[in-house]
Amino acid sequence: MNDTQQIEGFLDRSLSPQEQLLMEARLLIDTGLQEKVRWQQRSHELIKAYGRKQLRMDIERAQQRVFTEKAFGTFRQIINSIFR
Amino acid sequence: MIIEPMIPQSREALFIRLYQDAFPGAASFVKKMGGNLEEAKDIFQDALVIYYEKSLETAFTANYNEQAYITGICKHLWYKRHRDLKVELPLDEQLKLSEDKELSVSVKLMQLVELSGKKCLDLLKAFYYDQLNMKDLSQRFGFSGERSATVQKYKCLEKVRNEIQQRSLHKDDFYE
Fold it and tell me: 3-state SS string over B1-54?
């Protein structure tokens, strides 16, 4: 198992007890590995931010459609009457 | 609400349905509170983000009225934005979201990573954010099977990790 996979197991706590111990031991002395763990955690933050960004784009697209397309005229009538 | 393998079209169709079903109720509330259409749209978008992410959590069950739940999120967001109301917010604990402090990942950095490897980022997003299982993921991305999809997933993760680590050495900030 390479480092990336090991680190994933470490981060999501899915390593076996032995693997976990080994990882913790390695982390005590291997600063390169410590760095990798940190940057892999940050990768997950970036992935989540990217996921949210794409999600917002999809929501925005849906909003655009219901507020402009002919098919959703009744919907717009309802909304307009609320804010009249 | 069941989120099936989220192909973009089905997700868009889902949100269109949610607008039709839940936006009028949310809009009525915002209007009642003195808000306008723009504010209603804004809050509703945030609510949909929260709703989507919440529905992917395993503990989330379908024993609720979808419309009422989303309107509830909208109300919660409204009160949070207009704190002078000092209303009890029991939902706070459950939601723990909206303005996530830790997620101010540098937009510029994200764009750079996206530019250098959008396919990788999309794969990682599908697995970690949208929580596709490996079977659906390997089908969606055209892999020969789950095993090769898994291998690629780790390769992509390593690629992203190396890239942001490298860029930080060259003073590209990770956080805004």
Answer: CCCCCCCHHHHHHHHHHHHHHHHHHHHHHHHHCCCCHHHHHHHHHHHHHHHHHH
Which segments in chain B show pLDDT lower than 70? 1-8, 58-63, 84-103, 171-172
Q: Residue A20 pLDDT > 50, yes or no?
A: yes
B175 in helix, strand or coil?
strand
Q: Which residues of A touch B37 (CB under 8 A)?
A: 79, 83
**What residues contact residue A33 under an 8 Å CB cut-off, 6+ apart?**
A3, A7, A26, A27
Q: Which residues contact B75 (CB under 8 A, 6 or more apart)?
A: B29
Average pLDDT over residues A25-43: 95
Cα separation of B100 and B38, whole Å?
22
Question: Nearest Cβ partner of A66 from B16, B164, B168?
Answer: B16
Residue B43's contacts (CB-CB under 8 Å, 6 or more residues apart) are: B26, B30, B35, B74, B77, B78, B81
| Single pTM value for the model | 0.86
**In terms of Cα–Cα distance, which of B31, B12, B75, B73 is closest to A63?**
B12
Beta-bridge partners for B105: B175
pLDDT in tens, A49-63: 999 999 999 999 999
Nearest chain B residue to A41, by CA: B161
pLDDT at B152: 96
Alpha carbon of residue A57 to chain centroid: 15
Do residues B129 and B162 lie in contact, with contact meaning Cβ atoms separated by under 8 Å?
A: no
